[in-house]
Specification:
By secondary structure, the protein is of the alpha+beta class. It has five domains: 41-302, DNA ligase/mRNA capping enzyme (D-amino Acid Aminotransferase, Chain A, domain 1, 2-Layer Sandwich); 305-419, OB fold (Dihydrolipoamide Acetyltransferase, E2P) (Beta Barrel), CATH 2.40.50; 427-503, DNA polymerase, domain 1 (Orthogonal Bundle); 507-592, Orthogonal Bundle (DNA polymerase, domain 1); 607-673, 3-Layer(aba) Sandwich (Rossmann fold), CATH 3.40.50. It has 25 helices and 26 strands. A five-stranded mixed β-sheet has the order 2-13-10-3-9. The protein has a five-stranded antiparallel β-sheet with strand order 16-15-14-17-18. The protein has a four-stranded antiparallel β-sheet with strand order 5-4-7-8. Strand 14 and strand 15 form a beta hairpin. Helix 1 runs antiparallel to helix 2 (21-37), helix 3 runs antiparallel to helix 9 (251-263) and helix 19 (535-543) crosses helix 21. The protein is globular, with a radius of gyration of 28 Å. The N and C termini lie far apart (60 Å).
Length: 677
Amino acid sequence: MQELKAELDRAYENAAPLAEDVEFDVIKFLRRAVDVLVGKPTQASLLVFDVGAAPSEKFKKIRHSVPMLSLGNVFSDEEVRDFVARVRRFLGLGDGSLRFTFEPKIDGLSCSLRYEKGHFVRAATRGDGYEGEDVTANIRTVDEIPQRLHGDHSDVLEVRGEVYMTHKDFAALNARQKELGKTLFANPRNAAAGSLRQLDPKITASRPLHFFAYGWGEASALPAQTQMGVLEALRRYGLPVNPLTTLCESAEDMLAHYRAIEAQRATLGYDIDGVVYKVDDIALQERLGFVSRAPRWAVAHKFPAERATTRLLKIDIQVGRTGALTPVARLEPVTVGGVVVSSATLHNEDEIDRRDVREGDWIVVQRAGDVIPQVIEVLKDRRPKNTKRYKFPHECPICHSAALRELDAKTGKQEVVRRCTGSLVCPAQAIERLKHFASRNAMDIEGLGDKQIELFFQEGLIRTPSDIFTLEERDRASLTKIKNREGFGETSVRNLFAAIEARRSVPINRFIFALGMRHVGETNARRLARHFGDFESLRETAHDAVPGSEARARIDSIDGVGPVVAEALHDFFAEPHNERELDALLKQITLEPMPAVASTSPVSGKTVVFTGALERLTRDEAKAQAERFGAHVAASVSKKTDLVVAGPGAGSKLKKAAELGIEVISEDEWFTRTGQG
């Protein structure tokens, strides 16, 4: 039996990637069957008697129990030193000992694997960090991912890692694709992502995917108190962990390892686009917490941006959902870092003027990781004759309304962005707002992409967000069915209507973000959702938030929000057109509260203000800790404040708390109340 297994392994490694589909399936089937017989089951073994399973029509959504957030990026030695200094400053460590793990940043697709009592039960892609796609059936085909964990482990363990493809396997896959007359993949990352996101698991099973574990999500108990200790435990459980992961004692040590891995990058056999540094002590990670969509305790150090030279054919002006006119360079297609680039950002009007960028110029374009390609240099010595200096339009190219640069209230200077003034009549803004509303990080309506929205808008089927939720009803009553339009069919229309139906219930923070209000991104949407709790409270307060009012003061006091956002909120909710659309929308959908944060904490849901010189916590650490306990942190004391934590030197805030009869406690009492001793 072992000899048969060895022979099948050789066939798999050498011949199978180039074999016809049927041959390849037979080899994989026999190989997995032998795995079962010799007592070495893998996740892929589970498909031995299910190779004929019908493919799914679409992926189900899975809400991550612990958000699967992205990392912040740095690109220089100085930024790495700044990261270490910020961590030390936040923790108040001074020159105390502080260790970091160092690991290669695999250029693949992030995935979360859930184990219960050691058994693999579910897998999801990262998605938007809060909700991903259910790829359980496909992950079962990856041989390196165990069906059952070895040894002692917690009852619940979510393993986070990266699915990738090696250079050797990628070359073999493309050779097989070419032999079969199929489309070739651009790079190993695209091949891995495309393979994992196949609706038919048999296709994924035919692709040579690999996995490296790098962290965890939900866990009933962790096997160690350090990042490195947990990774070593994951390795003992049978999960692959990158062998190049190591520990660093300082910023200079981190940079030395970075330069060493950069030098051997081409010989690794798989793609990496940088390295990742993480604070090793898990207790310190918890103290550091998160800012916006990234942890304070980790950062990705990306390799230098890749560049290429090409020709700028035309400068287009795009009109965004807030009326911003954004210049985009249309390029002769050029490959940069394995990706074909045909457009790049030109930033804004002032940048074009300062650098004298002209249509017809030869330019240098740069792309770093997933950053939007940008024009970084104009090769004026290669400039063709008779080119003309570019004149930025002073009217909207879509609706021809005036495009103005508003004055910044703080500086008294013109804003760098020129905006279309025809917000209620400009089709471009309406289309972009609809695209934003349906987009992945907002309402996430699968099948309602940019092209579909543009088509439905032009045909008058969708003009406002509420129209989306009446589309199916109107289609049933119409003689001109959507399924009869070019590019649609019964299955695609059925899936679209199902996706719309599935988003009739959404978390309140997603809905707030989806509305596309100026200055209200994902982070501020979560802050507002947590502070107000329900949408009507936010709506009523924002509507009444004229300058000098108590409502304006309440919004101003939300930590991280401030007067600019307060003004934008008031402008949005005071507009009758928006009010009518909100009424129509809220008849169609139900808003879910945000997932509870430490709901059993005695400060959960309370508004807390920190003042004075805290001695056991830095101010940033205090705010982060309060938010972990489910409290709302405000910058100033008002009637809505529930609790003031005062340290030595507390002044006007302490006085106002006394005037309003608000409870004041010391820093030590804060620790006692929150159960920290």
